[in-house]
Design brief:
The protein is about 25% helix and about 35% strand. By secondary structure, the chain is α+β, with helices and mostly antiparallel strands. It is globular.
Length: about 80
């Protein structure tokens, strides 16, 4: 088994691809992302990906941004 670190991520889909968000999900999965959730109205896709494949997700058609899902803590 690989020791490569896996990152939790949030992908934002651009407005032009909201109507075909499922095809963006399929493309992200093909690029190595494990999708956990899809919010089609807002264009948000959540999941995880190994660090080596993180940058490649940014070039998937329909992806506006890829951000790390940072854990929030109350102060």
């Amino acid at each position: 088994m690989s020791d490569e670190q896996v990152e939790r991520i949030i992908v934002t889909v651009d407005d032009q691809h909201l109507s075909v968000i499922q095809s963006v999900v399929t493309a992200l999965e093909s690029a190595g992302m494990k999708v956990d959730g899809v919010l089609p109205v807002t264009g948000i896709i959540t999941g995880e990906v190994s660090q080596s494949k993180l940058e490649g997700l940014k070039s998937v058609t329909g992806v506006a941004s890829v951000e790390l899902d940072a854990e929030m803590k109350a102060i």
